[in-house]
């Protein structure tokens, strides 16, 4: 599908307006600033700093996730073998 120059220009213009609207309303770029933006920034910064403050905590999370994955796989295989024994 090909657009003529006028259609392409209006499509490009509409796209630019849409992006500008998102920049202003969502991210306060080029418009009036949102007073809560700085608070939100600090909250995210504090949360990310405290979430994995210690490397040990991060490693424990990884190990826990691995254990859950292995348990799920083992349970699936065990149920399959049991179904073969019960209903040959």
UniProtKB/TrEMBL annotation:
Segments traversing the membrane: 66-86
Keywords carried by this UniProt record: Membrane, Transmembrane, Transmembrane helix
InterPro entries in the cross-refs: Auxin_embryo_med
Protein name (record): Uncharacterized protein
């Amino acid at each position: 599908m090909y657009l003529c120059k006028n259609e392409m220009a209006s499509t490009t213009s509409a796209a630019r307006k849409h992006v500008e609207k998102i920049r202003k309303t969502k991210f306060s770029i080029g418009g009036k600033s949102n007073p809560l933006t700085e608070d939100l920034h600090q909250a995210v910064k504090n949360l990310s700093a405290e979430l994995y403050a210690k490397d040990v905590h991060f490693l424990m999370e990884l190990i826990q996730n691995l254990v859950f994955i292995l348990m799920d796989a083992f349970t699936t295989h065990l149920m399959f073998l049991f179904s073969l024994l019960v209903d040959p």
